Amino acid sequence: MTVVNPQQTFPGRILEVTLPAGEGGRSVSVGGQTSLPLLPEGERPNAAAIGIEIRTGDEELPPSLSHAFGGKGTDPATLAGNLVEESGAQFLFLSLAGCHPDLGGHAVSRGAGIVRDVLEAVPCPAIVGGCGEEETDALLFPAVAEAAQRPVFLSYADEKNYRLVAGAALAYGHGVVSWSPIDINMAKQANLLLGDIGVPPHRVLIDPLTGGLGYGLEYTYSIVERIRLAGLSGDGALARPILCHLGDSWKAREALDSAEESWGDVIARGRRWEEATAWACLAAGADLLVCRHPDNVKTLRGMVGAPWR
Amino acid sequence: MSEPKPGTLRFLPEDVSLPVAPGETILCHAIRAGVPLLSPCGGEGRCGKCRVIISGESTGGDDPGVLSEADLSAGVRLACRCHPSSGKLTVTVPPGSRPARLAAYLEGRDVAGDEPFLPLHAATGGRRPLGVALDLGTSTLAGALIDLSDGRLIARAAADNPQMPCGEDLISRIVYGEEHEGGFALLRQLLAAGVEKVIAALLGSGPAEGEIVEVTAAGNTVITHILFGASPAPIRHPPYQPVLREYPVRTGKELGSLAAPSAPWRLFPSLGGFVGGDIVAGVLASGMHREDGVCLLFDVGTNGEVALGNREFLMVCSSSAGPAFEGGEVACGMRAYPGAIESARIDPETLAAEWTVIGGGKPLGICGSGILDLCAEMFRTGLIDRAGQFVPRPGAPFTETVRGRAFVVASAERSATGSAICFAAPDLKSVLRTKAALCAAAESLLAAVGLPRDAVERVYIAGGFGNFLDLRSALSLGLFPPFPLETYVPLGNASLAGAIGAIRSRRRWREALSIAAGATYHDLSSDAGFMEAFQRALFIPHTDEESYRKILASQGGR
Amino acid sequence: MALTALEIYKLLPKTNCKECGFPTCLAFAMQIAAGKAGIDQCPPASEEAKETLGAASAPPLPKVIVGTGERAVILGDEVVLYRHEKTFYHPTAFAISVSDALDDDAFRDRIRRIRSLSFERMGETLAVDMVAVRCDSGDPARFAAAAAAAKEGAGKPLLLSGPCDALAAALPSLGPDRPLLSPPVGEGEAGARLAAPLGLPLVVRAKGIDGLEKALAAARAAGACDLVADPMPASLPDAVSLSVYLRRLAILHRAREVAFPTAFDLGNGFPSPFAAASLLVPKYGSLLVLDSDDPADIFPLLTLRQNIFTDPQKPIQVEAGIYPIGKANGSSPVVITTNFSLTFFTVRSDIEASRVPAHLLIADCDGMSVLTAWAAGRFTGESIAKILSESGIAGAVSHRTLILPGMVARLSGKIEELSGWRVLVGPQESSALPSYLRRLPPAAFAPADV
Under CATH, which number does the domain C5-56 receive? Predict the structure, then answer.
């Protein structure tokens, strides 16, 4: 070869984080790499992990998802069990959206009960998300932390609520998803605050906020690239696995609308809308993807592992 | 005490009375009566500093978001929002609502001292040729008197800038000028009066028998425009450019000043809307324009100007840092005059604050150096986290106020005002924003030219604050970028020092002109990296704290 | 090796003569460092300066143009590996294939479907750029006819894929339209000899980077200059790594022997074409050929391209004005915010989610978000009052109530004073809009007394 070797080496390594499973389930590890994604260089002990989201509450499902979920169960535990098995998801993301006052107003105790039931029914590793309403979540996180009979990750802690979420996590041995609004400096700051309060680094995942395709994806894309480059270049507080939650892609009109004929079939289009978002995030450096469509989980699972070894 | 005449407003303790003008607030009356009254926000009802105690009838100025029950029943009102109604009104201005008398912002470097003095004027018939060098600051006007026959510095004096009630910061003053009929004329009048007061103090201070034959004045662009008679309003509107950069020399009379009417007044040139002659004078005073090594210059004031350069280049910017270290925007903040807490420590065990007060006695509030110490100490003792949020700790002297959670610096019994002196969450935010803006400005200048931070050999700190601040507190908080402690050189009132140098030496004046001509103004609002640098600098001491830790560790001590 | 502004400044005359249009030499140096000005703008610059600074700005990846006129497609001409370092300039080109083996009706139908792959979003029209005509028939005359029909029917630049005799048959009529020639791997030199005399762009294929280096050298030796490299990956991981390595070689290592725009044929049975396209758009694919004409596939890919190729340094903005959402009428709420695209689309989407019809009033703030615009003095009491009187919103609603973003609550007094409208302070976060709007009392929007 007359041309130079184009492989790139970095001085840093992304911390390896393991999401533990329940009895009979398989834990999943992410991180540990010394190179940029999807390339045959450096050390890459773990492939990206693909998970699936189940949401409680009474939001209307996008057509593509109601089509995929049809007949697989209505209560969270059953639905979760079926979807995880069918899709091969490596972890479950349980969003307690139903506890939001506008999306069902479930009592905190009900949310905690759902967590208990789901974790018992589905042994794969789990991340539990709050409802997104500040006051409710302040009560929900401690309750969930207590109700979960095995270690999970709590999503999410940000600069405002980190004491509460970290407190709940530390008290019951859970991990924390560290969230920031598409800002690399705030991502680092959130991790520093969590470290200060005693959350061990190997129990932290970075969620940089993923904008859906067409609605801010490019901001996420660049922040994820920058975070990954910083981590590999030696910035310890950013050398952590990155989680991209693809839920925002389902808010796009283009993923939901069945009226426009020239846009093609909405069932396929909705799924593709999430899939394109997923690939872009992987290309940027995502170590965990949270999908809603089981077929995307299947597709991604089939492709991110062995082929890239 | 006699009853005020009907339709009269009487101010105490000056015992100045004036007829009530219908529709005007108490603050407006105070301005007209020449009664000094704080109004940092320019009378917009935002800062809560213009508290007065009324006896009589009035309407307004009783916002329960700012004044407590106790305040309201004791007759406390906000002068900028309060209107006399019945016409028989006595208004007492308490000490906490008064601006500073004399600030210790007079000491500065000897700029022209390294060269032999060449007199351009001679003493004639026993009358000495005198030169006046002025620093036209936003809050304080300072001056120095020089004997131009031998170059000796004879006297110094200072006075508050009488424009203060029209707004603490420059934008507020421009807004005042735009929104009040005759506003700019009033601002000019007030400024001229303040300058005359300084000059009178200089002349009256000693046996100097003489005539003022030259004046140099260094001030920020807005104030220099006002003095010159040009409207500063265009600075506030796109394309945000000042009317003038170089000011043609005018006599005192042409400038509308009663002092030194026939002497030529040389006004230091401006570099941009928010970087003015005071920075040019400061650069001159630092000598950085003659150095081989790259230097930074910080002016820790509301505009937060930063300069980077050496004899090869000069780049300047304004970070709009905010007045947190001048006592503004911090509720218990004040200028550095008697009654101000100027240094503070917090006991790591008891979490109680101990402090020293300028002039001794009980404290009225906290000045810049005290605020700096306090914040650094709160962080050191774990009362606030890196993001500047209060950490709930048992035994911590926190209290809930109308402005949220606050750290009690001095309890009501220990304070001179009778109320506790508290440092609340919004105050902390102001301090962090100010220091983040300064650091980010420096980082942005370095990035703009492409220099690494370690290329900087010296960091000049202009402004009186620089002489009093504790460098370790400054680095613990992250007020400046991290350099070894000996890198920092406080200049004192660099603007005045530069004005003095320029009046002593024509060569220095020409240097000032060439500094201004060669300087590059860097607009931070269009610098994409500035906002990111700002976000990084919001942490205590910084998101990238390693350099700070190393420097503080290597210096030992606390 | 990029020079810093200070290093550039040291090469300049340092007289601040302003002939370049900038106030000082240092300011000019900063513009050169940012790639926004050239040394040619400085007449008094020294020869040394002109040479150093001129050379430093030669592009690491050459530009190849396919097609002519308005629809010409630009490939290559990129300068950075990561869009956040500056921006990506030329969006990945998409070519949808059509086979010359199709019968006339099927062919026309296919071309029609390709043409209808056009979508409006964010004020832009997203469409595929080219048609790739495949010679599956083996018949040069048939291929030439198909190519002509494709040009006629689709009106887009063409990629002509087939053996050299087929390409040669198509050139007499299509040459002037500057199609991209794509001969099979064994006919590289013949293809170069076809392309060179007409100055046409050419796809050079070989397996792997070493092979490409040789094939590209051979093509250049035969006189072809406008080259596009196809490293013929066998799998998706192969495609990604080859694409990344070729781009690194061009940009980081300045390896001119392989620095060319890239083309990938993701049709013809290539595994997982949708995934491949999704990865190659951000990862340096200059041209992608796809067999799918399904809008469910193409619309997301074009949107991904739109996102990745947005200039990160320019805030994207929408036009100022009144945007009625749902069946908004005279008594619907009026919500105001700035014209930063993300703000606009987020707020609009939240209003839609509330199911409460409303008028979204967008203020021109140069694409700044609410807080940034307020800090910069672009979103003020005065500017909002002005919009209320000049935008025509007063004619669109019978009430005079405005909902203001919670972040700038402090402006409400000023707005009320200047405009006479009543201001309701909305939530701090747009995501709270749905519940906020649903809880508004209808009485808030009763017709105002005029």
Answer: 1.10.15.40
